[in-house]
Amino acid sequence: MLLLLPLLPALGLAAPQLGTSPWGPEVAATMLRFGCHQLVIDRIDPLVNPGSLPSPHLHQIVGGNAFDTSMPYNVDISSLANCTTCSYSEDLSNYWTANLYFRARNGSYKRVPQIPNRLPLFGDDITTKTEGGFVVYYVSGGIGDVTAFKPGFRMLVGDAGRRESLGLRNQTCFRCYTGPDFEGDNLAPCYDDAVDTEELPGKMCWGIRSNILFPTCWDGKNLDSPDHKSHVAYPVTGPHTFTALGTGGQCPESHPVRIPQLMLEIIWDTSLFNDPDEWPEDASQPFALSTGDTTGYGQHGDYVFGWKGDSLQRAMDGVCFGAKCHVLHTQSLEEGKRCSVPSRVGEEVDGWRDVLPGNPDVWKKK
């Protein structure tokens, strides 16, 4: 699968002016790409485990401060939040994924810190300076190409309980950075057999990048479904993502409405754990997602829509690139940092631990 829009700097193309396309006047594509600070790290999940305190495993959360143990269905989340950790101040949505932990040879665990993306795009320096958190992408093929999500919309990609390959590298993938300058990163996610894997890398890396790509087709009726997946679908033919020319794959008849390509991009600094004496004696990979998953096949991402008014539709039709868009409002790095919510569970998630938060039954210390 290809996502050619993020390759633009690597191709040596000049940064576009706001409201213009770098591909020429015949192509009016949009790619929002913006950083979000950490909102909170907590063991709650209002989508899969609403009302549970705590939920089974730990999540990293970014976005608006309406995030809580439960988030009411069929309600405009943007009306409940008054700040966001994301650089676009009109995006009060929430995005969350699993955390990553390192298990030392003595059986103890430590959370792997998230670090900013090193690549600025079209003058964006917020993405390279966020604290914790990750990068969010929204892509469309141009004016009228997609229908923005509606208030109350939510979805999930991946399965936290999966422990074997289903050949779904086009939905989630990992990439091993081989040096401090992000060597091994040619930007486009999940398509390169040489560098992208569905499972966690089995070797020492300077950092590990995780990409999560959401479906791009909607049934046009339901804002959610019991499994949080059935109301959306991936294309049945062609690429699963939009290309530079806006030619996403064909949607199935059951899900005919094309929606923006949403992608999350997380970078973990695993260089802190590259002491061979701390790795297992058999040199097997020592990282686990906070679900207790040592394979990486259970990587997943959750989304609750919360853009204000028609701001996302305007952006998708606005021929915008990166973290600056002429039809959206941005906030400063400091304003985003001030937005937070308190931990509801209140457990210690950092420092060396005997077990993972929630004690998932995989790598219990002997």
What does this structure look like?
It comes from Cercophora samala. This is DUF1996 domain-containing protein. Residues 45-307 form the DUF1996 domain. This protein is mainly β and 366 residues long. The protein has one domain (1-11, 29-366). The protein has helices spanning 311-316, 333-338, and strands at 30-36, 40-42, 59-63, 94-98, 100-103, 109-111, 134-140, 154-158, 172-177, 196-197, 207-213, 217-218, 232-233, 257-258, 261-268, 287-289, 300-304, 321-322.
Short description:
This protein is mainly beta. It has one domain. The protein contains two helices and 18 strands.
Q: Order of strands in the sheet with the most strands? A: 10-9-11-15-7-1-18
Biggest sheet statistics: 7 strands, mixed
How many β-strands, per DSSP? 18
Number of domains: 1
Query: How would the global form be characterised?
Result: globular
Protein name: DUF1996 domain-containing protein
Organism: Cercophora samala
Pfam families: DUF1996
Domain DUF1996: 45-307
Salient structural properties:
366 residues; mainly beta; five-stranded antiparallel β-sheet; 21% strand; disordered N terminus; DUF1996 domain-containing protein
Sequence-ordered SSE layout with sheet pairings:
Elements: E1 30-36, E2 40-42, E3 59-63, E4 94-98, E5 100-103, E6 109-111, E7 134-140, E8 154-158, E9 172-177, E10 196-197, E11 207-213, E12 217-218, E13 232-233, E14 257-258, E15 261-268, E16 287-289, E17 300-304, H1 311-316, E18 321-322, H2 333-338
Parallel strand pairs: 1-18
Antiparallel strand pairs: 1-7, 2-3, 3-4, 4-17, 5-6, 5-16, 7-15, 8-17, 9-10, 9-11, 11-15, 12-13, 12-14
Protein name: DUF1996 domain-containing protein
Domain DUF1996: 45-307
Organism: Cercophora samala
